[in-house]
Amino acid sequence: MTDAAPRNPYISSRGLRIPKHPQITTGRIRGALRTGTYERKECDAVSRVVHEGDVVLELGGGIGYVSSLLSVNRKVARVVSYEANPRLLPYIASVHEANGVTNVEMRNALLTAQGGDPVDFHLRSNFLASSMHRGSDPDSIIETVPVPRHRLDDVLTELCPDVLVCDIEGFEAELLPAGDWSCLRCAVIELHPQWIGATGVRAVFDAMHGAGLTYFPKASEGKVVTFRRDF
C-alpha cells in the first residue's frame, strides 16, 4: 500500500501561491482565490496602471495578496504597506515568503493626519473582523492591543510614492484630504460610501483632483476608483 500524496499547502491564484490557513483561506475567500476573483476590481486596476519600478504606498495590507501581486506580476521597486491588525502580519509574511517577495515593508501602524499616541485595536476570533471599533460585535473581542500612529506628511516625504493603493474601510474620507499627494502618478482607492456618504466620496475625489490626478474610468469599477496624472 502506497502512502497518499501530501496535500498541496497552497492555493494558486493569479500566478501566486497563497498558503492555506484554517481561519483565513476559508469559504468564500478560498473560492475567490481559486477563481482569481479575490479583490478582483482592485487587482485589475493596479494591473492596468502600475508600472515596473514604481514605489507603492499601500494603506490596508489585508492578507498580503495585493502587495504580492504588485511585487511578482508588476515588478515594482518597493511597497510600503500599512496594516493595523497585528494578527495578520505573520500570515502576510508567509504569503510573501511563498512568492519570493522581498521588497515589501510591512508597518503595523495607522497612518493619520497628525500622528500621536497609539490607539486601541480590538482583536476578534475572526482575524478579518478585527478593528478599532469596539461597538461592532463587542462580545467577539478576545484582546485589545495598542497600535502606533504615523504622521501622514512624514511618510509621504520619506517615500515620495508613485502609486497609492488604499482600502481603509471608510477612513479614506478623513485621511486622503489631509495629505499632499502631488508626488503620485496614480491612485487606486476603494471607497466605502455606505460609511462615508456622498460628502466623503466627494472629499476623496477633491483630494485627488487637487493633487493633479484625474479620474480614470477605464481602470475603475464600482467602489474601486482609479486616478492618474495626465502628462
UniProtKB/TrEMBL annotation:
Gene3D superfamilies registered for this protein in UniProt: Vaccinia Virus protein VP39 (3.40.50.150)
Top-rank taxon, per record: Bacteria
InterPro entries named in the record: FkbM_mtfrase (IPR006342), SAM-dependent_MTases_sf (IPR029063)
Domain Methyltransferase FkbM: start-end pairs: 75-195
Protein name as catalogued: Methyltransferase FkbM domain-containing protein
Phylogenetic placement of the source organism: Bacteria, Pseudomonadati, Pseudomonadota, Alphaproteobacteria, Rhodobacterales
